[in-house]
Amino acid sequence: MKKRLIPLFFLLVVYSFGQRISGTVFLDENKNGTLNRTEKGLPNILISNGKDIVVSDPNGAYTINAIPGNLVFVIKPSGYISELNELNIVQSYFHPLKKNIKDYDFALYAHTENKKTKVALLGDVQVDVIDDVHHVGKLVTEELVYNRPDFIMPLGDLSFDNLEIFDPLAAVLGLVGCPVFYVIGNHDLNFEATTLSERDASFEAKFGPSYYAFEYGDNLFLVLNNIRPLPEGKYKAQIDNDQLEFIKNLIALKKDKYKAINIAMHIPFNEVNNKDALLKLLRPFDDVFITAGHTHTQYHNYYKRALQKTAIHELVCGAVCGSWWQGSHDLRGIPFSIMHDGTPKGYWFMNVEGDKRELQYKVSGAPATKQINIWVPEVNEWDKSLNELNEPFVYANVFAADENTQVEINFGDNQWLPMDKHEGVAPELKRLYKLQVLGRYKGQPISAFPETVKNSKHLWRIAIPENMKEGAHLIQVRAMNSNLLLDVRESSVLWR
What we know:
Layout: H1 2-18, E1 20-27, E2 46-48, E3 53-55, E4 61-65, E5 72-75, E6 80-81, E7 93-94, E8 106-110, E9 117-122, H2 130-144, E10 151-154, H3 166-174, H4 201-207, E11 212-216, E12 219-223, E13 227-230, E14 234-237, H5 241-254, E15 260-264, H6 275-281, E16 287-292, E17 298-303, E18 312-317, E19 346-353, E20 356-363, E21 372-375, E22 393-398, E23 406-410, E24 416-418, E25 420-421, H7 427-437, E26 459-463, E27 472-481, E28 486-495
């Protein structure tokens, strides 16, 4: 019996890990997806199976092993792109074992790319029903069509455990008319999967590999899947071993070309329980930028490194959906759903060229200049219950700020005074929740807004001067941070 089992096991291993995929990466000049005699192979293009990376030879030829559960994909080189489908998703991959493919040619097209790349970063869109997809269309698609980036990166939690909503969401984002590079989130997993390789089956069927890399302009991008599923629908933030091997191989091949790397993941870096392994791999890069979502708040983190002068900069991008599309609706039928730190719903733009990076937050439905919420006490006669929220302070919520941002206020006398960094709940959220408790939203078919207890990381305040004259005062708040290229101001009316 042992004599039969050993050869059988050997055959299974050979089939699973020994299947070889060969083909050619070529410039598809007539864009028909087929390698013709007159078309040339492209050398030095990277192809991966999610662990190993091979390089195409001078004729564009490559050979790579298939790994069960993994896609085989091209690492997009600068100046080229694979075919985009009708949803503007890059078709640079295939599933060799599911389709029993042994030969596959990758078609690439010439693609004009500026050295400076403009990226739209979308924190959790987290759509569950078609109503939420309508909101994304109004808040994101309709704006980006007229302020189009080079590409879009949704940063995970595309759905709210409803994987069938992938199709309508992708259709709406695809209307912007630029490539969309998707990141997987914890709510995008197949939690019923019995193996790690199947955790991303639904995501990969629609969007391609759940971790990958690509070049655009003069920039290198690395997209990670940092969610490991656990029993009963739970998960932990961890990067699996195959993925770490992929990262190691990528960096070995690209460290001499790039001094900077841009990384996208869903769960913030500080929550990843094997982040030290990733930190070690990233040592060759002088500049490391990480962007994430997940928290439904937004903030900056800086991680000092022992061997590099420059700290790793992480931007947690908040959520397009705010607080899960909850709360009363505005005139367009969109929930207020302010984020848990008082930030209005929106997304980020990143202009990047090597280690030079410009970041700007865009409040959906508001002018680009809207960067601060100013909160002043108001004495109301119509709804006197709100007067209970009044405090003798002016608050400033600076959406894009970090802890090193300088915030100042002018009470109308041309004297700029520093405001104090405040660890507390944004007053806008207190007001919304108060109105809900008072029953102001009863009768609306809405999802209730949760009571917020999280402190904002970008809130400042100052006591109102006791000697201010009675009457109306035009006050101004300005926020400045040279490292973030932040220089914004906002005005408000204060009654005394």
